[in-house]
């Protein structure tokens, strides 16, 4: 059954997932990975929703559209189809505003509408996850005993680069595993280790576009030191 949400505006969206298997399908049925992914998404969502409301109140159109676009991408990546569609509609609607009256109405509704859609869909997703009969605690990254040379590290970063280019969610685990290896005996200077940490944080936020920029800068610096 499809559930339609209509909150605050004429925009409406539909829940795409009716079973847990349907929800986990795009993630190869990996429930542990998906639970971790949705936890990362929710950790970042609260601040993003607050920022959307603040930017709308300020009528800061450029930054509002940029944030909506970013959240649209992460919502799609995380499997929140309803939120992704709602953000797509808001992005188009705000871009096409042509009257002061319409703008006032949209600015007044955008933040609450997006928040209501997000919370409703997350509640739906958690209800599906609650039907799981599998005990799936969140996986923790174990510390590695492997050490890396600069050449090996460069190869690892090349693989990470491919994951990011492909929008592969394995980039999240891959970067954490890389951090675990470097925790043993890092060939990087302290400042580059900090850069890698920031890179992994960016990947965990599912901001792959910014992560690619940070990764390219890090790889170029390492290459210059090799």
UniProtKB/TrEMBL annotation:
Phosphohistidine PTM sites in chain numbering: 69
PROSITE patterns for this protein: HPT
UniProt KW keywords: Phosphoprotein, Two-component regulatory system
Domain HPt residues, every copy: 30-132
Pfam families referenced in this protein's UniProt entry, alphabetically: Hpt
Protein name in UniProt: HPt domain-containing protein
Species in which this protein is naturally found: Shewanella saliphila
């Amino acid at each position: 059954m499809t559930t339609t949400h209509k909150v605050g505006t004429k925009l409406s969206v539909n829940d795409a997932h009716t079973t847990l298997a349907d929800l986990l399908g795009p993630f190869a049925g990996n429930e542990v990975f998906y639970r971790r992914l949705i936890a990362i998404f929710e950790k970042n969502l609260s601040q993003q929703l607050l920022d959307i409301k603040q930017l709308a109140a300020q009528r800061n159109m450029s930054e509002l559209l940029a944030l909506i676009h970013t959240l649209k991408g992460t919502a799609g990546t995380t499997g929140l189809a309803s939120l992704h569609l709602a953000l797509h509609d808001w992005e188009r609607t705000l871009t096409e505003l042509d009257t002061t009256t319409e703008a006032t109405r949209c600015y007044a509704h955008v933040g609450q509408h997006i928040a209501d859609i997000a919370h409703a869909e997350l509640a739906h997703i958690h209800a599906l996850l609650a039907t799981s009969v599998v005990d799936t605690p969140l996986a923790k990254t174990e510390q590695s005993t492997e050490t890396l040379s600069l050449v090996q590290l460069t190869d690892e970063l090349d693989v990470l680069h491919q994951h990011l280019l492909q929008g592969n969610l394995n980039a999240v685990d891959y970067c954490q595993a890389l951090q675990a290896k470097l925790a043993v005996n890092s060939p990087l200077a302290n400042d580059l280790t900090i850069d890698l940490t920031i890179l992994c944080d960016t990947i965990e936020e599912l901001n792959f576009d910014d992560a690619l920029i940070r990764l390219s800068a890090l790889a170029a610096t390492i290459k210059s030191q090799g």
